[in-house]
UniProtKB/TrEMBL annotation:
SUPFAM superfamilies, per the entry: Protein kinase-like (PK-like)
Keywords from the UniProt entry: ATP-binding, Kinase, Nucleotide-binding, Serine/threonine-protein kinase, Transferase
PROSITE patterns in the record: PROTEIN_KINASE_ATP, PROTEIN_KINASE_DOM, PROTEIN_KINASE_ST
Name used for this protein in its record: cyclin-dependent kinase
Pfam families: Pkinase
GO BP annotations listed: G1/S transition of mitotic cell cycle; regulation of G2/M transition of mitotic cell cycle; regulation of gene expression; signal transduction
Keyword Lipid metabolism among UniProt keywords: no
EC annotation from Swiss-Prot or TrEMBL: 2.7.11.22
Native species: Pseudolycoriella hygida
InterPro entries assigned to the protein according to its UniProt record, in alphabetical order: CDK, Kinase-like_dom_sf, Prot_kinase_dom, Protein_kinase_ATP_BS, Ser/Thr_kinase_AS
Length: 334
């Protein structure tokens, strides 16, 4: 892989976080490529998502350590990389310094080609490599499903990672099994967050369908949202760990909402935002149910835990921090 000789970058990464939050952040002069992409030997593609391609690679300059290289394209303006993108990358690097056990570690950021005609720059984000994602992990489970103790541990790690992001004012917005990685020792780590603005640009260039199954109702209804959207998605993921099936496998936005209402009940007219294009009457009237109505594998405590995560009203969902104190996490699994 070739690394073009860009002179956009002039300051070491350690300075970025400070400058990214400064009012005088200068996008064109504060970002240095800390390693040459030529030092990585690409082995195979491990993921092609909506926003980029992920390769398994060998870090030749670091004892042939296996890494995951995520190739993304960012828009270039006349000043170079847009400030938002620089800020996001700086934040990701800064988060890496916490070495949180449930967050995938960003090891480095390198730049590749500058595509003059497309006014884009190729960036390689270098992450620690994990064995598989949660989607593959769930698919490879035996018919007896996930052992109760493993489930309790993974659900706790998921919420611990979410709590860490939220305490750093980051909303993931796209939590789903393919964005949760599982290490060879069975540890869950969150991936694919923090580059929302960079990605938005890429998303316009791709026709990959983004899954709706884990999306909170307020996002589907184009309402303002906050960190509670990640609690909703985490609830869907935990239910899927129990049943090995998506909780709300909607086929369209409207079908997704209808599937959600089969659990939460159809909202009252007063809860229905006036800006939504379809009327509330176009959905069948449904009464609220408990999560075990849809996910029969739930035990009493996990059913109660999920009922605190899957509320239609985001204000009624508990925070990740509060959920980690739930008795489900204290019980001795059967
Ligand atoms: N660090 C990693 N280790 C192992 N596999 C990874 C890693 N990062 C991503 N992947 C795999 O690549 C897929 C796409 O990566 P992701 O960062 O989610 O990109 P996208 O933005 O395209 O969804 C993931 O679903 C996962 O299967
Ligand atoms: Mg992803």
């Amino acid at each position: 892989m070739r690394c073009s000789s860009l002179s956009l970058f002039a300051a070491p990464f350690s300075n970025i976080s400070m400058m990214a939050s400064s009012k005088h952040f200068n996008a064109g002069a504060v970002f240095r490529c800390s390693t040459d992409i030529d030092g990585y030997e690409e082995l195979n593609v491990i993921g092609t998502g909506a926003y980029g391609t992920v390769y398994k690679a060998r870090d030749r300059k670091n004892a042939n350590q296996i890494v995951a290289l995520k190739k993304v394209r960012v828009a270039l303006t006349e000043d170079g990389i847009p400030m938002n993108t620089l800020r996001e990358i700086a934040l990701l690097k800064q988060l890496g310094t916490f070495q949180h056990p449930n967050i995938v570690k960003l090891l480095d950021v390198c730049h590749g080609q500058r595509l003059e005609r497309e006014k884009q720059l190729v960036l390689f984000l270098v992450f620690e490599h994990l064995e598989q994602d949660l989607s593959g992990y769930i698919d490879s489970l035996p018919s007896s499903g996930m052992p109760a103790r493993t489930l309790q541990k993974l659900a706790g790690e998921l919420l611990t990672g979410v709590d860490f992001l939220h305490s750093h004012r980051i909303i993931h917005r796209d939590l789903k099994p393919p964005n949760c990685l599982v290490s060879s020792t069975g540890q869950l780590k969150l991936a694919d967050f923090g580059l929302a603005k960079t990605y938005d640009f890429e998303m316009k260039l791709t026709s990959v369908v983004v899954t709706l199954w884990y999306r909170a109702p307020e996002i589907l209804l184009s309402q303002p949202y906050n960190s509670a959207v990640d609690i909703w998605s985490s609830g869907c993921i935990i239910a899927e760990m129990f049943s090995r099936q998506a909780l709300f496998p909607g086929q369209s936005e409207k079908d997704q909402l209808d599937k959600i209402f089969s659990l939460t009940g159809r909202p009252l007219p007063a809860q229905w935002p006036s800006t939504v294009s379809y009327s509330i009457d176009s959905f069948p009237n449904r009464s609220p149910r408990q999560p075990n109505y849809l996910c029969h594998q739930l035990c009493e405590l996990s059913n109660d835990l999920l009922s605190k995560m899957l509320a239609f009203d985001p204000r009624k969902r508990k925070s990740a921090d509060a959920l980690l104190q739930h008795p489900y996490f204290k019980q001795e699994p059967l």
